[in-house]
Design brief:
mainly alpha; 2% strand; globular; 3-stranded antiparallel beta sheet; 17 helices; 56% helix; single chain
Length: 481
Amino acid sequence: MTQPKRLKSLRWLAFVLLGMVLFCCGGSFTTLMVSRYSSERRLQEKLEQLSIKGIPVDDASVAALHETLTSTENVDVWIGILDRFASQNFLDQCKNVPLVGKNEDPIPKLGDPWTDQALVEQLMAQNADTMKQLLDIAQDNGPVRYPIEFKSLGTLLPHVQNTRSAARMLMLEAILAARAGDADREFRAINAMIGCAISVRGEPFIVSQLVSIGVHGMTVNRLQKAVEANRLSAEQLEMLRTRLAPFSDIKHSFTVSSKGEIGMAMPAFRDPATISPQLEKLSTLIVSSGLADRAARKHAERMEEALELQTDNLKNFIADLQEWENQPLNSGLLEKLECSISQQLAPVMSGIGSALVRSKMVNDLTTIAIAARQYEMANGQLAKNLEELKKQGIDLSLFHCVDGNLPNYLLVDPAKPIDHSSEASASTESSKESRAILWSFNPTKSVGNLNPSLSPTPPAKLNNEEQSEETDAIWWRWDLQ
């Protein structure tokens, strides 16, 4: 909800509440108590229904859900690593280093001189023990159960944010390994980046899932270069493909984060001041009138509807989520008031939905590219089309883009130039070194592209500088050399 809309909603809420004060002062106290009892009873019935379905309804049940999704294996080591990367000593060491510090100079492509390489190597040497620990524990890990004090909207997640720093250090390690020609070292760094993305994937919070998606994007940027240049072995590719498989399951992340949002929001309705400081003076009235309980029930019902949305068809999922988010307010005065309070706590589900769709499409394209390399290693040549990748266990029915199409694949004939008929696909570099091109498209809508869809010709081949951002156009075209 934008700030102007939020302020308008709060003004509307304050106005109606003032009317309720006047009404209650002149009305029956008995009627008020009956209304409160009825609201409390109906909310309790809804919470019991949710609990039976395994949906958390308070801090304790969110904590219980978190416990079922995570493991304490190596948790102390993980905490020590992340605390190290959050320490002032480390921040001082890395302040002039790319990716992890304030140095924004682009990292040149492989083979070109890198003026900051000595700084990066020095940082790695200063943190050699920490990096060894990280590389060791992140090779085959699952979601980590970091200690969290569940306090409704006040819950803090310091280890989640620090995971980004660990992933950026691993990205630097992968770049150094590639420049040194050490494929095994590069593989371990990339695999550990996947481990970082997995480590926070069991936390029932939208912010945790978004961090996982972001680290996954960083990993794809690094993995793409290794796969395109054919630097990894068949065994390494198989392991990476297996580790990446969960990121195509957007139902998991959507369900986990939605359940967590329900459980974390419920206690806040009993203390409306936590929703907005403007409601602090009205908290007693909101609770005593039963309005808080009715708003909580309304919120639980809406979030329960979101949980039932299907994710199999990406286009339908996005459309259904937008429709759910844009549901009109009920016409009655009290109903509008309940919805108004509920909306203060409603997460932007379309945001996590769009991020999950984009992440799945990126992960699908990565999986297909890995399978193409595996096919080449098994058959001595690249596949002629995507159908041939079925031999590598690819079920094409699971790889449709948001527009319903499969990614495009082109086996390049070196004797024939690639057709770049559209302006958008005009290449900035020669494609002679590419023996096959695999491409998809960014599903995120923009002002200039309200209906993103798959192009029949490859998109532009971008400058191959190393990239640090998770959202990068380089994702959508893979050139297998």
